[in-house]
Amino acid sequence: MYELIFDNEAIEFLNKLPKEVKERIFNKLISAKENPFHFFERLTGRGDYKLRVGDYRIVADLDQGNNTIKVTIIGHRKNVYKNLD
Fold this sequence. Notes:
- The protein is an alpha+beta fold.
- The chain has a single domain, classed as YaeB-like fold (2-Layer Sandwich).
- It is about 30% helix and about 35% strand.
- It has three helices and five strands.
- A hairpin with a 6-residue loop joins β2 and β3.
- The termini are far apart.
- The model has no long low-confidence stretch (mean pLDDT about 90).
């Protein structure tokens, strides 16, 4: 089972969302802990992965060696990719 690690920026965005959306995102992440490669999709030309939850996207680094999912960005699909370097 993988461990979830959140960046402060991701936590701040999550806390601004309505309760129902926040719960949906969190439940999806909990489901992904068993087999993240079933849920996450690699971003084209990058080393990180995305997870779709309705109109929101979760960008994370998956580390198989340490069994960690590091959630770096959570955002609306319209502008989440603009925040990527």
